[in-house]
TrEMBL record:
This is histidine kinase. Residues 393-492 form the HTH araC/xylS-type domain. It is found in: Cell membrane. It catalyses: ATP + protein L-histidine = ADP + protein N-phospho-L-histidine. Residues 1-190 form the Histidine kinase domain. It is an enzyme of class 2 (transferase). One of its GO terms (molecular function) is phosphorelay sensor kinase activity.
């Protein structure tokens, strides 16, 4: 059912894009772009699918490609659609190849040269009669079969429109029983641009992060509904690195890592691990804010990574997304059984990944508010229903025993909890939005509030009873925390 819904969403989104094209409302966000990382990354995102079907997937390009004026999000859509089509018609044991070449300024249509992107497969091929209609909207070759991508007759039509919007060309060569080659040519230089387009592209160069893709994968409604929240709360691309969330990427394919890095580097600090063992070690050592892990990796796979991290107190709270080409219900259930927070299929759309990460961070903020209320208002009555809540319950048990000792410090609390100071700090910050030292002080102050309300002793006596060395410092901390003085509570 989920696969059918995903296909329907892709179809709706592509129809909306075609409608925008018809109405002249689909605009290119042009910028001077070097496409090697994007093209290589999109191709690599199909590698798990290729492995699962024993299809040889190759990417060939010269070491450095020239920059060209394009909309990277739409170029990505173009390549995803071409690769999806190639895989749809490829048999197990076949091959799919992406070749990127630079054409010299010899063709009349491309006076400054062109970037030539071809996608070839060894699939069924189509007849010349079918080939004449292949870019027509809603046309499907007669032998098109249901597959992972399904057949809609929309993808190639949209691809052609996007290519031509760039001033490029697209052709398809095919022979029955031998396979097909789709070839896209995008113009180099700037002669094909209007002065207004060129000026807009120049102005846009300061925005160095990849734009949100409005192509397949999410409905128009989701994109528009999330855009306001995302822009309002996401960390700016020019924000200092220290305030950006720390994200761990666990992926054995270097090209996919580079691709995801290009999508997320503006909004996140990134740690990368080439295998599951390294990923688990880094996650528990650094206590990151988010984790993205591939499923199919040598050594321990993504399911085992998820299981280990979710069962360990140090890392159980970290939101984790599993990336995989396995779209079966069994595969998704396997990930969810290991407590993965989200399960995202490859190839994914950058906007979908960004929104998933954003939503996980928002969910973490809501959880922080919940834990803060439970810990501050009723520090000894926290219900235990997860590894994180069991951790907080144990932490507060330690504080119940030691909070009266003035000398009880973060270092001693860390030792009691079996963590380093930095691990404890990041864990508590993630769960409650408080540092370890602030958490200890909040606990002591709440205990003081309980004692004052019960008229248990004088203010000075209570200050010493909860671990403060100075009644005057206790009063200042109490006023800052509760907005009222200890004497006001005592006299109430």
């Amino acid at each position: 059912m989920k696969e059918s819904a995903a296909r329907l969403l892709r179809l709706i989104n592509q129809i909306l894009d075609l409608s925008k094209l018809d109405a002249g409302q689909l605009r290119l966000s042009l910028r001077l772009t070097e496409l090697q990382t994007l093209l290589k990354g999109v191709t690599a995102s199909f590698s798990s699918l290729a492995d699962s079907r024993a299809i040889a997937l190759r990417f060939t390009a010269q070491e450095r490609l020239p920059a060209l004026y394009c909309d990277p999000a739409h170029v990505e859509t173009i390549l995803i659609n071409l690769l999806s089509n190639a895989f749809k018609f490829s048999q197990e044991g076949g091959s799919v190849e992406v070749r990127v070449a630079v054409l010299p300024p010899a063709l009349p249509a491309f006076p400054e040269g062109a970037l030539d992107i071809s996608v070839s497969d060894e699939g069924e091929g189509i007849t010349q009669e079918q080939l004449a209609h292949i870019f027509d909207r809603f046309y499907q070759a007669g032998h098109a079969r249901e597959s992972l991508w399904g057949g809609t007759g929309i993808g190639l039509a949209l691809t052609k429109e996007l290519v031509e919007l760039h001033g490029g060309s697209i052709t398809l060569e095919s022979r029955v029983g031998e396979g097909s080659t789709a070839r896209v040519r995008l113009p180099l230089g700037s002669r094909h641009l209007s002065p207004a387009q060129l000026q807009a592209a120049t102005d846009r160069q300061g925005d160095w992060s990849l734009p949100l893709t409005a192509a397949a994968g999410l409905t128009e409604t989701l994109a528009e509904a999330s855009a306001t929240d995302l822009n309002a709360t996401a960390v700016s691309a020019v924000a200092p690195a220290a305030v950006r969330p720390l994200l761990l990427l666990i992926e054995d394919n270097a090209d996919v890592r580079a691709y995801i890095r290009s999508i997320l580097a503006a909004d996140y600090r990134l740690l990368e691990a080439p295998d599951g063992e390294t990923g688990v070690r880094l996650a528990q050592q650094e206590i990151t804010d988010l984790i993205i892990s591939d499923v199919m990796m040598p050594g321990i796979d993504g399911y085992e990574v998820c299981r280990r991290l979710k069962q360990d107190e140090r890392s159980s709270h970290i939101p984790l997304i599993l990336l995989t080409a396995k779209a079966s219900v069994h595969s998704r259930l396997q990930g969810l059984e290991q407590q993965a927070d989200l399960y995202l299929s490859k190839p994914f759309v950058p906007q979908e990944l960004r929104l998933c990460l954003h939503n996980l961070l928002q969910a973490r903020l809501r959880l922080q508010e919940r834990y803060q209320k439970q810990v501050v208002l009723k520090p000894s009555e926290l219900a235990v229903s997860s590894v994180d809540e069991a951790f907080l319950k144990r932490l507060m048990g330690v504080l119940e025993i030691h909070h009266a000792r003035e000398s009880f410090s973060v270092e001693q609390l860390s030792l009691e909890m079996g963590m380093s100071r930095s691990q404890l700090h990041r864990k508590l910050e993630a769960l409650t939005n408080e540092s370890a030292s602030h958490f200890i002080r909040s606990f002591r102050l709440q205990r003081a509030m309980d004692l004052l309300q019960k008229k248990h002793a004088s203010i000075s006596e209570i200050a010493y009873m909860v671990g403060f060395s100075s009644p005057s410092y206790f009063t200042r901390c109490f006023l800052k925390h509760f907005g009222t003085t200890p004497s006001a509570v005592l006299e109430a």
